[in-house]
Design a protein that fits this description.
three-stranded antiparallel β-sheet; mainly alpha; about 35% helix; about 280 residues
Length: about 280
Amino acid sequence: MGRKKRQQADHKADLRGGRWAALPVAVLTSHAYTSLPAFERALLFEFVLRFNGYNNGRISFSHREIAERMGTKNYKRIARAVACLIEKGLLAIATDSVWKERRAREYRLSFISSGPANGPVPASNEYLELKNDAEPVSAENTLSAEPLSASVKVPVEPVSAAERKESQNPVKGESLSAEPVSALIGKPYVAITNRSDDPHRNTPKTHAGEIGPALGELREWTRRVIEQLGYGGARTLATEANISEVALSRFRNGKSLPDQYRQPLQYACARHIPFRALAA
């Protein structure tokens, strides 16, 4: 039998000798895209226009070129829009800029494969990991599921009753202070004068995440710090906490965080916003 012909559309665009610049339906219907403001949606199409079928991961687009295409001279607005596309998982930085070499930053569209033709790397599709904030939040996350904004209200007492009870009744043999957990987090570097007083020295089963706020509170704390840091805040915080930017991004979007990363992340957040300030 002959090969079945693929059905073609009846209506075709007049390309005028040019090519297509379009987005997959999976992207257009995703929460990552539908939650974008109009400016960021237009900017995403400009990045797609820069893709020629062979240069994903090497898409060069300076802020000056973006300003010309978008008809604005507000470079802060452009920087925030690029950062938004990255945080939504639609765009990624493949190669950072080198000022001395006058080389612009190069980007990669996450929903398109990249790499050489003889060994392409499949699309990473980070945008699919972004959950709809309207969905129910897991039991461990005690904060509101609404997007982070000025309207988000942090609970007045961020430490649960169980944690307050535990902090006031430490395990026998440990020399932790009976002050609330929030006070501990407000002092990220607790001096230990006697090494025998270190509560973690002779307790190998103790995890870094056992001392500090609940996981949901830590997630809100992380989001607030990144928002305060502005463009590149996620990378800065990940570097200070010595954890991967991918793990931090997944944690912000509702995933869990390994125990060994929790206390370093608490310390890094406390350098920018004291924990007790969240309730203010």
